[in-house]
Amino acid sequence: YSCAGAGGNGFGFRRTLASLSTAVHAKPAAAANDLGDDEDDDAAGWETVVGLELHVQVAANTKLFSGAERAYDARVNTNVAPFDAALPGALPSVNARSVELAARLGFALGGEVQAISSFDRKHYFYADLPHGYQITQQRQPVVLGGALDVFVPPPSKNAEAPPPRKLRIERLQLEMDTGKSTRAPGQGHTLVDLNRAGSTLIEIVTAPDLRSAEEA
After folding, report:
1. Given a cut of 50, is residue 67 above it in pLDDT?
2. What average pLDDT does range 97-126 have in this prediction?
3. Which is deepest, 110, 126, 131, 176, by most CB within 10 Å?
């Protein structure tokens, strides 16, 4: 049994179905729906399993598919190109600097930079997502593989630090960021700022290799 997010990643716990079934049927019928009666027995055999999905904003000067400036704290809705606003007829042009930085990150993590990668549409509705979809890389990401050592500090001053945990990287993919929605208190509406819309994100998807909240 596993409790995890999409793609097998996420924060959860796992246990074999056989042991879970045994734990349930070993209790009296009246307590079968309450496995928390004996915390020690219930905790035995469970393992924390953590995989991560990280979003890293790329320090390119312009956005992923437009020439609009990527500037933090600019005046509202001033860095918005026609494509960022999803205006009819506006076409994307990929930012070579964003692709370069994603490839460099892939090399740094020991991944395999792909000779061919492609973009896909992921459809969902946000008020600050003008296209009605996000452009991402579900099928052919820019980087596959890689790993990172995770170091956890010792539990106490005189204790020895645990050995590092190797966190496998499954994929790095480029994708568009959304805009920013701010709820106007007491006014019954939401304010939308598209300055961030279309900025480059690198999504880093890891294997479920971490075994504690401290490691995560």
Report:
1. yes
2. 96
3. 176
Burial class (CB in 10 A: 0-12, 13-18, 19+), 195: buried
pTM comes to: 0.77
What's the mean pLDDT when you consider all of the chain?
Answer: 84
CA distances from 8 to 36, 69, 110, 142 (A): 26, 36, 22, 20
Nearest to 208 by CA among 19, 13, 43: 13
In our burial notation (b when 16+ CB lie closer than 10 A, e otherwise), range 94-109 reads ebeebbebbbebbeeb
Kindly calculate the radius of gyration of the chain based on its CA atoms and give it in whole angstroms: 23
- The residue ranking higher by pLDDT, 81 or 159, is 81
